[in-house]
């Protein structure tokens, strides 16, 4: 410590090099000085030493005494082995006495038995062998309080300093004899549930000894945890969209993951013709079995699964750990992916009417989009005249659809639409040239709502029926859908405009928006379901409202439902302990049986919280045996049982207050002069 050989300075290193290398010429110290501080001759010597040391520095060996130290260490090891092999060392120097808190303490059951010194534990140990799939090595401890994994094997071994017989391990009111072999009493059992245990033995004179209670806490193998990131639970795709689902799955387990995979179900069709196809998928990344945390990316291509418009995909991640023989399994939430289908049409009604008021025109907008996309693709192969003609025809179809929606909304027909060709026709000069473009209610009876009569109807309700003067009153839709349908018609107007201008590319976005609005109108409608219920038999008119109950038999049932009392034996034990403390009476056999039953009830709570109720459970165990009791022990046991009882729930009831004659007179006086 004074020499401090581990501290090396540059001066010591330089001195050692000067003694080892002749080429250094005792000038290696010049390398530690800046060249600016040296003379010209010293600088030349510095450069020469640096050049020579660069070539020969590898031949310098660090000073050490490894050979001498190895010889001394080998000699000491040999000496220690010889002393141990021939047992030349005193035994009292290597024997370790267990700690007092880990020693098993026994108490004699019968105080009237022989007063000879009781046998004591000389050596005690518990070996915990964990399941093979965990990879955890076994351990041995002298502490009897055990905390081990579910499925572990526990092996107890006890060695006494005097001969004993009938050593028993008592667990959950079951006696399990321990076998004697090689001076040790041993017993082995597989851990399947938490419990309490104690030891019992007899000496050679027949005296019985019982140890205190020890807790066995069982740790359960937890299920794997699954977390899916970067993915919504519901995803929808358009038909022409890139239909891929990318996500990352994080899987964690306390002892290692055994297997993991994806279960995907493809749904095709609808109604009674729906078909399901289940498929098992593996993760793309390689992972090691037994890993405690995995981050697995995955991409699901819906096109590779052959999903079409309207098809749906349901999938979840399932994982199992390494537990044997039955592993713990867990699965994630189910995730959905849908390819939108805008061509389907479902029966729907509006305004809770039991009729299908939706026209077939809801399906034609999609056909217009398909024809427009087809025209755009064929533009290079068509002449300009043919292209303009087809674009104009699509504009006319768009106009026809818009006007039909206008009629359905209750609007007046524009241009006398009859879905004819728009070519101009010759008019008779005698005819009104505006007759085709007007809506003559007096002459045409265009809607054919009523038969023609010579005299005009004077019905006062006529103004409330299909009033064309107010288009908002003639619609079959509710106010919540009229605005959407009006927006769709506006989009159709813009789509028609660009088609008339021979610009189908600009018309296509308006057509798509119109189709989307129409689809929302369809989906927001409600389905009419016929009521299915009980139809009672018809009532006879001659029996109705007569009030006769002669043929009707009455039925009455009375039942009292009582709340089951929790912990009945603990409550009885508390009452019995109060009698024993107040009257200072002796414990009978019936009392010991009651204490044993109360201990069984308390053991259920003590397994969950062993540190809180273990002492009270130990005292009940001793009271149920043939031990000498005292008043302080009985009070402490009673106090512990009180704490174990659940708190009573408040019950409503009338509260009685104390009333005296003076208070009654005072209240009467107040009532008189109120």
Question: What does this entry look like structurally?
Answer:
This protein is of the alpha+beta class and 674 residues long. The chain contains 13 helices and 21 strands. Strands 1, 4, 6, 7, 10, 11 and 12 form a seven-stranded mixed beta sheet that branches. Strands 14, 16, 17, 19, 20 and 21 form a six-stranded mixed beta sheet that branches. The longest helix has 26 residues, at 384-409. It starts with 9 loop residues before the first helix and ends with a helix.
Quick tags:
674 residues; alpha+beta; seven-stranded mixed β-sheet; 13 helices; 21 strands
Structural class: alpha+beta
N- to C-terminal separation? 102 Å
What percentage of amino acids are in beta strands? Answer: 15-25%
Give average pLDDT, whole number.
78
Based on DSSP secondary structure assignment, what is the total number of beta strands? 21
Rg over alpha carbons:
49 Å
- Shape verdict: flat
Q: Treating each run of at least 4 consecutive H or I residues as one helix, how many helices?
A: 13
Secondary structure: helix percent: 25-40%
Largest sheet: 7 strands, mixed
Identify low-pLDDT runs.
Answer: 91-100, 345-363, 415-469, 472-476
